[in-house]
Amino acid sequence: MAPIMFGVLVVMLLLGYPVAFALAANGLLFGLIGIELGLFRPDLFQALPERVYGTMNNDVLLAVPFFTFMGLVLERSGMAEDLLDTIGQLFGSIRGGLAYAVIFVGALLAATTGVVAASVISMGLISLPIMLRYGYDRRLASGIIAASGTLAQIIPPSLVLIVMADQLGRSVGDMYEAAFIPGLLLAGLYALYVFVVSMIWPKAAPGLPPEAIAYREPNGARGVWQLGVLALFSGAVAYWVMGRTGVKSGADHVVLLLSVAVTVAFLAATFNRTFGAQRLALQAAVTAVLTAGAAWLTLNGSTTLALLGDSIAAGALYALAVALVERASGRRLISRMAEQATFVMVPPLALIFLVLGTIFIGLATPTEGGAMGAVGALALAAMKKRLSFDMVRQATYSTAKLAAFVLFILIGARVFSLTFYGVNGHVWVEELMVSLPGGQMGFLIAVSVMVFLLAFFLDFFELAFIVIPLLAPAADRLGIDLVWFGIILAVNMQTSFMHPPFGFSLFFLRSVAPKLPYIDRVTKKETAPVLTSQIYWGAVPFVVIQLVMVALVIAFPQMVMHYKSAAVKLDDKQIEEQFQGLGSSMDNELPPLEFK
Fold it and tell me: Where are the annotated coiled coils located (predicted)?
């Protein structure tokens, strides 16, 4: 009965029935058939209420609405617009600069929103008209926007990874740490593709003309090198400070390094804008107080406070040194471009630390991190004076809609799996998968091909709730690390957002891309629309890149397995000695037994 159940489910989905109801109806229908045929025990249906209640009582899934709400608030706060404008100006003069900016901003939005729709729609509305204005190839522009938006599915705090961890029975924090390097590497592969295209077809990705470059100094210079100097100084200070803490493991080390560097750069830029070279005495006094406070925190405070104190002191000292040089030479050493880039990048980077940093260093669970992220997003919207009741209402409505969508699919999957497991369907799938030739590698290749093909017709949530519970036992039986297995599937399922013709990223981009000729508001010239075929063809190279990334994760598991280095390691010898000591002390305290 199990193969027939699975086949009927696929047919129902292809006919267009809603996923949640197709799953539940399939489970109930075949459960009744199984009872009539004596293949299914009737009392198993009594477990249905408990399974539904267990789904609703799952604390891990509570992170889904938190991160969704955070992403929707950030989308409406204008953070993406500020980022794309500033980073586009930073990269704009080089060939393919706007495409690099979209990838960079896509990675930042992914690390703050975790929602594909928010990223794709924001970048489609803001960057696509600019790329078309300056002559970008429509296929490249469409593909890079859609692909950069899907980074939200692999770079933490991804909703995909939360659901994946729940289905695999693994820690969300481990999934986040394991996905960190593959996510950044995937963004790097996108940038490499843009570089190759811009070298072979320069007209497909031109640089911005000089008149389109803003944030210049009075003498006309851009001052980009000054941002590089500030970034190098901040990175060096962060590396020196972190070397004293002993934190050396992968993702948490990167996040903490980034947090210290951002603090140093932000304070340096703030002091430079506030005091400058004209109020040197006041700046020197403030710097002296901050440095003394940092020294006291280093000697008497906790590690976190010491990190914060050292970062503040380093930023203040750098700003003071810059002010002294500017006073003596008359030249600015922190340009307008350096200041603008620093101020625009600090809010999302601070939010990344608030969410991911607290999770990685163990201060918060993913659910608590999501709650802090939601509060942080509201605070950022309030700082930009864009927080309103209407915005919060819309974000709350969309969050409830998505959360209900996820919950109903999961409940339907529970009903389906109850019957499927009751007729030993999981045993059939496990034996089928384990018997594949090639051992672990043969299993991983076969599963990757199967998931890639299913992604043409099913989206991530459908794959996660139907397929993963069936594949996980077989992977565990073959000795495959389930976190590694989950990251392989997550990167693979990312293609479901990019597959023509059903990829959701392509639908999101189509909804905001111009469908008719329009007059550009800057050049006042008529601009041709973006065709659906151009969006689809633009997505194809990035689907190939994602498949290359799947192969890299399979071939080099070390890029995922670093998550184990952050785990607490117990010394068996020390534990045995402690128990021996405990036993001897208890023996000494107990009075001797007397028999009469």
Answer: none
| pLDDT: which is higher, 590 or 188 | 188
Least confident of 3-7, 371-375, 388-392: 3-7
From CA 279, how far away is CA 567, in angstroms rounded?
49
Say if residue 260's pLDDT is above 80: no
Tokens 């990190």 appear where? 307
Are 343 and 327 in contact, with CB atoms under 8 Å apart? no
| DSSP 3-state of 519 | strand
pTM over 0.70: yes
Sign of CA dihedral 273, 275, 278, 283: negative
Closest listed residue to residue 84, CA positions, set 133, 124, 143, 140: 124
Q: What are the tens digits of pLDDT across the range 467-512?
A: 888 888 888 888 888 899 999 988 888 887 787 767 778 888 888 8
CA distance 414 to 426: 13
CA distance 235 to 552: 29
Helix/strand/coil (H/E/C) assignment for every residue in 310-368? HHHHHHHHHHHHHHHHHHHHCCCCCCHHHHHHHHHHHHHHHHHHHHHHHHHCCCCCHHH
Q: What is the largest CA-CA distance in the chain?
A: 110
Question: Which tokens belong to 491?
Answer: 């990167």
What tokens appear for 473 in the block? 């036992």
* H helix count then E strand count, the chain: 27, 2
For residue 157, whether the previous peptide bond is cis, meaning omega lies within 30 degrees of 0, is yes
- pLDDT tens readout for residues 270-326: 887 787 667 778 888 888 888 888 777 777 766 667 777 777 788 888 888 888 877
Maximum average pLDDT range among 17-21, 53-57, 362-366, 592-596: 17-21
What's the CA gap between 276 and 279, in Å, rounded?
A: 6
Task: Enumerate long-range contacts of 534-537, CB under 8 Å, 24 or more apart.
Answer: 534/138, 534/139, 534/142, 535/139, 535/142, 535/143, 535/146, 535/506, 535/509, 535/510, 536/500, 536/501, 536/506, 537/139, 537/143
Closest CA to 391 of 82, 118, 123, 75: 75
204, two tokens: 């497909």
127-179 pLDDT tens trace: 888 888 888 888 998 999 888 888 888 888 777 888 888 888 888 888 888 88
Residue with tokens 């629309």: 529
Residue 526 pairs in a beta bridge with: 519
67: its two tokens: 């991160």
